[in-house]
């Protein structure tokens, strides 16, 4: 709704006034409105005219976190482990199987175990002094196929070691199986290496002597 | 420098090989980053000289391989316009769509350098973008699944014959509800322009996911 408009002007003749009124009326006319043109997309392929997409009829497999926890070996050995094809595997056998296929493990010894310095034999002390070894230096026991005896192979010894290590909590140890060399390498600090070596020989019932190897020095001790 | 046209025997195959290899890596990574599957089934690998996560679940791997094996002939013939990795909620409504728009030039000039180093660098950038895309996306609801949609340039039914290359892996036209997303948010991730392929990746994300 338009309010009254007051026009102020100078009295300089009636001709000028009529012009002013005409101009003012024009100015007060509403602006012409142009309807906007219909939007036409500049791209030719409107989605309405595109063919619908295609997809595989089969749904993607559903895998729950619980399945993954229960059957870690399935992921590596190519066995399906989905909820669509569940299988009953008890947790104990699954964890043993997982240990068997695992290539390496490490033990974080408790502080109480670590602070107890083991007693060292005279022969081992001699080896330490000859090679100038530091007690915190890393060393590795090498278990070869010939240490396993005639009735066992390196895989069986590895399984036995993995099981035993879980209970024993071998201090400062980590181990791995070198399948291409048919060897098991058990790494530990020099301080604990004699203790670990005895444990390996007794618990795994190894035959012959096992070698203690130190990087750059080679074999420094045999047990 | 060798100049090849699309009619040349091996050109389409070369592009399809490169793209399918890339899409395989990208799909695995998307599934990992967007937590469609438990992280326990993924292992760290190296591809395009960057670390990526690949599933080690045989059934999932087979599914992805079969899907890409079927898509390959479409890419080879330049019939695939978009490959879309759709992440769906438990009601099978899309929550995210990773759209790979692919375009191949009709005339190409390629050399071994072009293929091996330059394209690899460009694809690496895509992978890096995907690996950090969770920073710009909202969390997905639990129990999500995924599917792969292929938008073709020509009739879907005609292309259906091309993708049925594996006997036990049939393809169907996608349902409307799998394609359309309500109020999507568009997040451009990366574009690629090379002598052999042009590609852009963007994500369409549903505004209300939960």
In short:
The complex is a heterodimer of chains A (223) and B (210). With 223 residues, chain A is of the alpha+beta class.
What do you see in this structure?
The complex is a heterodimer of chains A (223) and B (210). With 223 residues, chain A is an alpha+beta fold. Chain A is built from eight helices and seven strands. Chain A has a six-stranded antiparallel beta sheet with strand order 2-4-5-3-6-7. Chain A is elongated and about 135 Å long. Residues 77-100 of chain A have low confidence and may be disordered. Chain B is of the alpha+beta class and 210 residues long. Chain B has a single domain, classed as Cell Cycle, Spindle Assembly Checkpoint Protein, Chain A (2-Layer Sandwich). Chain B has helices at 11-33, 58-76, 112-132, 156-163, 176-179; strands at 2-5, 42-47, 50-55, 80-88, 94-103, 107-110, 145-152, 171-173, 184-193, 198-206. Chains A and B meet through strand 1, helix 2 and helix 3 of A and helix 2, strand 7, helix 4 and strand 8 of B.
Topology readout:
The complex is a heterodimer of chains A (223) and B (210).
Chain A: H1 14-28, E1 54-56, H2 65-70, H3 72-77, H4 91-101, E2 104-106, H5 111-115, H6 122-131, E3 138-144, H7 154-168, E4 174-178, E5 183-189, H8 190-203, E6 211-214, E7 218-222
Antiparallel strand pairs in A: 2-4, 3-5, 3-6, 4-5, 6-7
Chain B: E1 2-5, H1 11-33, E2 42-47, E3 50-55, H2 58-76, E4 80-88, E5 94-103, E6 107-110, H3 112-132, E7 145-152, H4 156-163, E8 171-173, H5 176-179, E9 184-193, E10 198-206
Antiparallel strand pairs in B: 1-6, 2-3, 4-5, 4-7, 5-10, 9-10
Protein name (chain B): Mitotic spindle assembly checkpoint protein MAD2B
GO biological process, one term (chain B): DNA damage response
Pfam families (chain B): HORMA
């Amino acid at each position: 709704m338009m309010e009254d408009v007051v026009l102020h002007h100078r009295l300089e003749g009636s001709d000028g006034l009529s012009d002013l009124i005409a101009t003012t009326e024009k100015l007060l006319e509403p602006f012409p409105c142009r309807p906007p043109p219909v939007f036409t997309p500049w791209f030719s392929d409107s989605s309405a005219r595109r063919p619908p997409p295609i997809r595989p009829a089969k749904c993607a497999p559903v895998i729950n976190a619980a399945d993954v926890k229960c059957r870690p070996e399935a992921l590596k050995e190519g066995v399906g482990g989905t909820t669509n094809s569940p299988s009953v595997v008890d947790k104990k056998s699954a964890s043993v199987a997982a240990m068997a296929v695992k290539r390496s493990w490490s033990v974080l010894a408790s502080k109480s175990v670590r602070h107890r310095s083991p007693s060292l034999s005279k022969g081992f002390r001699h080896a330490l002094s000859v090679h100038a070894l530091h007690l915190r230096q890393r060393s590795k026991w090498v278990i070869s196929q010939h240490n396993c005896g005639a009735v066992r192979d390196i895989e069986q010894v590895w399984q036995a070691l993995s099981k035993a290590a879980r209970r024993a909590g071998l201090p400062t140890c980590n181990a791995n199986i070198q399948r291409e060399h048919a060897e098991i390498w058990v790494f530990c600090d020099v301080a604990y290496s004699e203790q670990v070596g005895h444990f390996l020989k007794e618990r795994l019932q190894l035959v012959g002597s096992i070698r203690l190897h130190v990087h750059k020095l080679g074999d420094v001790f045999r047990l | 420098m060798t100049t090849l046209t699309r009619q040349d025997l091996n050109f389409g195959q070369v592009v399809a090989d490169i793209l399918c290899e890339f899409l395989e890596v990208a799909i695995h990574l998307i599934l990992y980053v967007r937590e469609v599957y438990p992280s326990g089934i993924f292992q760290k690998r190296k591809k395009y000289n960057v670390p990526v996560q690949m599933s080690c679940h045989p059934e999932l791997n087979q599914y992805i391989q079969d899907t890409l094996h079927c898509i390959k002939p479409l890419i080879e013939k330049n019939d695939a316009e978009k490959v879309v990795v759709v992440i769906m909620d438990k009601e099978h409504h899309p929550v995210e769509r990773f759209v790979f728009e692919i375009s191949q030039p009709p005339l190409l000039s390629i050399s071994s350098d072009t293929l091996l180093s330059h394209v690899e660098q460009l694809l690496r950038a895509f992978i890096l973008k995907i690996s950090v895309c969770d920073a710009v996306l909202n969390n997905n609801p639990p129990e999500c699944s995924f599917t792969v949609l292929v938008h073709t340039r020509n009739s879907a039914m005609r292309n259906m014959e091309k993708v049925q290359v594996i006997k036990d892996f049939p393809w169907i036209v996608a349902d409307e509800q799998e394609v359309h997303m309500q109020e999507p948010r568009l997040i451009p991730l990366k574009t690629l322009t090379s002598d052999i392929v042009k590609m852009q990746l963007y994500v369409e994300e549903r505004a209300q996911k939960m």
